[in-house]
Amino acid sequence: MKIDRYEKIFMLLGVGILAMGLIAIAISVLHYGLHVPSPDGRIAPGDVRATSPWDEPGVYETGDGEYEVIMLAETWRFVPDEVRVPAGSEVTFRMTSPDVVHGVLIEKTAVNVMIIPGQIATVTHTFDEPGEHLFVCHEYCGTGHHLMSGRVVVE
Q1: 130 secondary structure, DSSP code
Q2: Which residues pair with residue 149 across a beta bridge?
Q3: Contacts of 82 (CB under 8 A, 6+ apart)
Q4: CB 119 within 8 A of CB 39
Q5: Which of 19, 46, 115, 154 qualifies as a cystine partner to 102, CB 3.0-4.6 A?
Q6: Cβ 72 vs Cβ 58: under 8 Å
Q7: How far is CA 111 from the centre of its chain?
Q8: Do 121 and 45 contact (CB within 8 A), yes or no?
Q9: pLDDT digit string, tens, across residues 24-68
Q10: Domain 39-154: which topology?
Q11: pLDDT tens for each residue of 4-34
Q12: Cβ atoms 54, 71 nearer than 8 A
């Protein structure tokens, strides 16, 4: 069967682009450790504030240089809205929402998570350098959406 020269070129281009995409994904996962956040569990949205650990959101030291942030994204605020950790700390954020869909984007990091009522989102990041990282809600959640922000202070 004879295949036209232009068809061969376009097939090779398609295979090449597909191969480059797969290589980029492999490098992202294997070298940089990036992954798509997925639900770490489920919780009834109406029970969030009465269920541990969500009844006491905050920053907790879980080991040497390891911290866990229990965070609620609720109507127009994050609780806590300030996270303080030492430089070099590995911080695991466990987040949920009792009301509507929110999102969290922490600047200067790869943390970008959707927070869906009824789901627990977990993401880990190591903050190597001292400084401040603003975090914002990137999913429109109502008239006070612009108020949803906070900061990670790396000391």
Answers
A1: -
A2: 136
A3: 150, 151, 152, 153
A4: yes
A5: 115
A6: no
A7: 4
A8: no
A9: 999 988 988 777 766 778 888 889 989 999 999 999 999 999 999
A10: Immunoglobulin-like (2.60.40)
A11: 999 999 999 999 999 999 999 999 889 887 7
A12: no
